[in-house]
Amino acid sequence: MLNAYSKDDKIVTLLHLSRAEVEQLRDQPYFCPACKHPVRIKNGKVKLPHFSHYSHSACTIHAEGETLEHLTLKKMFTKWCERQSICYELEKYLPDLNQRPDLLIGNIALEIQCSPLSIQRLVERTKNYQKNGYIPIWICGKKIFSNHQVLSELAKNLCYYSDKIGFYLWAVDWEQEELSLHFHIEEDWKKRLYSSKKTWSFYRHSLKQIFDFPKESKIYIQREIKIGELIQNYYFELNKGLLVRDERIRVVQAELYNNHFHLLQLPNWFYYPGLRIFCCRGSDILLKVKIWKWVQFFDQNVIGHLALINVLAKELEESSELFYELPNVPMKSIQAICLNQLFIYLISCGHLTKVQNGWEVRAGNPDQSPISIKAWLQIIKNKRIITATPIRNVIR
Questions:
Q1: Are strands 221-225 and 302-303 parallel, antiparallel or unpaired?
Q2: Which of 237, 260, 322 is CA-nearest to residue 288?
Q3: Cβ proximity of 123 and 327 under 8 Å
Q4: Are strands 50-53 and 38-42 parallel, antiparallel or unpaired?
Q5: Which end of the chain has less Cβ packing within 10 Å, N or C?
Q6: Which of 349, 368, 363 is nearest to 296 (CA)?
């Protein structure tokens, strides 16, 4: 903590004090703003001066120690606000929520996440902010998102979504003094990350305009992806996983077996386009199974557009256990995003064809074999697609 109460119930902050000035305050009694228990000043040589609970504290808000990165970033963001005359409250305890954002800027609750956090706690805190009229902005420190090649489960659940820039994630580099936005995020079957990036140097840009960027952006991004290579590698990796008895693959195969499918003999649509449906936890094949059973049921029939949307949306509503929590994205939006992607893939693979009075459904050849799949893989080996934001919406 950088703030604590004095014995007179006044806020004492160490934010702008030198180490010598902090040292002069050490003998006074101080109390935690949340639990009211005594705290002490720590003024070592490594971390910034801060308040800390005594050992065995039961405080649920301030019990965890803060890293040098976290303390430094709080100080840097407050400096940014002060330079731009932005009203803020540092470590403002919200008693009705029993939560304390790092900075409160109007109704924006800024949370700088530099240490591991359980998904359950993340969801609780995010939903609590939203329910009480606050807009949580979670920013990843270097330990949470640093290699920019894969997303940890925590980083995945810290993502947001905008129609203008797709899925996005805030990150900060305290050493380079840069705030960055990773957007138009996609993952392939191996969970390798594809993203675009925009970076702002500290203090040089309007912090409020930066936070408005996802909804105000005029950037249009196109990304060319070699899906022929992706799908081919995906199929061979599934084959290999079965041979070596990879537990993750066996779980998928067991579920497929219960539905009379085999992992290596699925319709091409299951492997297409080698990109994962971002919202899906685990393999998106399990979600595609549910949709494919519907395709088989309506095979060679025509269904109206609205009726088609409704029936697919219902399937997604009943499959919520297959999705990540993504607390910063409403579940209705998650389902709409997934529905749009599934719709595009069904059209691309020839299972939905637009006709005058709706959509014709075609399941195609039910006797798919590994030989026919490998022939298809050979045909598409040089195929590429363009993904883009704003994302093409086909479900309106």
A1: unpaired
A2: 322
A3: yes
A4: antiparallel
A5: C
A6: 363
Task: Return the H-helix or E-strand segment holding 78.
Answer: helix 68-83
Are the beta carbons of 125 and 99 closer than 8 angstroms? yes
**Rounded CA separation 83/290 (Å):** 54
Residue 238's Cβ-count burial label (10 Å; 0-12, 13-18, 19+) is: buried
- By three-state DSSP, how is residue 66 classified? coil
Contact between 275 and 309 under an 8 Å Cβ cutoff? The reply is no
pLDDT by position in tens, the chain (length 396) = 788 888 888 888 888 788 888 888 888 888 888 778 888 888 777 677 888 888 766 676 655 567 889 989 999 999 999 999 999 999 998 989 989 999 999 999 999 999 999 999 999 999 999 999 999 999 999 999 987 889 999 999 999 999 999 999 999 999 999 999 999 999 999 999 999 999 999 999 999 999 999 999 988 999 999 999 999 999 999 999 999 999 989 999 999 999 889 999 999 999 999 999 999 988 999 999 999 999 999 999 999 999 999 999 999 999 989 999 999 999 999 999 999 999 999 999 999 999 999 999 999 877 789 999 999 999 999 999 999 999 888 776
Q: How does 239-264 read in b/e, with b if 16+ C-beta sit within 10 Å?
A: eebbeeeeeebeebbeebeeeebebb
- The DSSP-derived string for 238-269 is HHHHHHTT-HHHHHHHHHHHHTT--TTS--GG
Alpha carbons 34 and 174: distance in angstroms, whole number: 27
State the pairing for strand pair 135-140/166-173: parallel
Contact 280, 287 (CB under 8 A): yes
DSSP structure class, residue 329: S
C-alpha 174/C-alpha 178 separation (Å) is: 7
**Amino acid residing at 221:** I
If we measure between CA atoms, which residue out of 277, 332, 327 comes closest to residue 138?
Answer: 327
Distance of CA 235 to the CA centre of its chain: 26
Amino acid code (one letter) for 223: R
> Is the separation of the CB atoms in 334 and 323 below 8 Å?
yes
Type of residue numbered 288: K
Quick check: 188 and 194 in contact, CB under 8 A?
Answer: yes
Two tokens, residue 97: 């929520």
